[in-house]
Amino acid sequence: MAYQTTNGYSLYQRTVNLKGGREQTIYFFSRKNPKSGTAVETVPEGFEVSTMTRTGLPILRRVGGSKWREQRAAQKARAAARRAEREARRKQKMEERKARIAARRAAAKARAEERRRAAAAKKAKAAKKPAKAKAKPKAKAAKKPVKAAKKVKAAKKVKVAKKAKAAKKPAKASRKPVKAAKKAKKGKR
After folding, report:
1. Looking at beta carbons, which pairs linking 20-27 to residues 24 or more positions away fall under 8 Å?
2. Do strands 23-30 and 58-62 pair parallel, antiparallel, or not at all (unpaired)?
3. Tell me: the pLDDT tens digits for 33-42?
4. Three-state DSSP class for 20?
């Protein structure tokens, strides 16, 4: 009698030849009698029967899982540890940053308070001193002639500078004599 699962599947085995020439025994489940293969009475040693969650079909699985599953589980554990370590470092950096910001703010408040105290002390000192009599401003009429004289001097300087520039530039020569000389050369040839 073949090994049967709870949902009516029976376990069978078949020996097949692989491309490399090696023979291998394969195990499979079926509800009907297969064309080829023999019924198996017990589950092979080192295997267990489990059910696929998506399809609900029975499968044979190695007891304790395969190497791949173990390696994958180890990889996941290492990845989780790295994530936790990164998160811890990030939190520590954030705490350090917050502490630096708080220290800067405290220093800025202390400087502002020091400035306020210095300003208050200066005001208090100024209030204690007696007020000096201010000197009377001179008449504005005296300044006007001076300004007019300055303007006249500046205008004279500009005129002199323009004359000097004009003296430095050479006078423009007429191009007509040059053209006449070129024509004369052409005629001689």
Report:
1. 27/60
2. unpaired
3. 888 889 988 8
4. coil
CB atoms within 10 A of CB 30: 13
**Looking at the DSSP assignment, which residues form a beta bridge with residue 29?**
11
Residues 5-64 pLDDT 10s: 878 899 999 999 999 999 999 999 998 888 888 998 888 888 888 888 888 899 888 887
The 10 Å Cβ neighbour count of residue 14 is 14
Q: Say if CB 13 and CB 26 are below 8 A apart.
A: yes
3 state SS of 29: strand
Q: What is the pTM of this model?
A: 0.36
CA distances to 30, 39, 42, 110, 128 from 45, in Å = 20, 16, 9, 79, 106
| Order of strands, sheet of 38-39, starting from the edge strand that comes earlier in the sequence | 23-30, 10-17, 38-39
Q: Please report where in the chains the tokens 């040839």 appear, as a residue.
A: 189
Whether residue 68 contacts residue 97, with contact meaning beta carbons closer than 8 Å, is answered with: no
For 2, 92, 111, 164, the CA distances from 105, given in Å and listed in that order, are: 81, 20, 10, 65
Contact status, residue 40 vs residue 2, Cβ threshold 8 Å: yes
**Residue 56 has which token pair?**
């609900």
Strand partners, 13: 27, 38
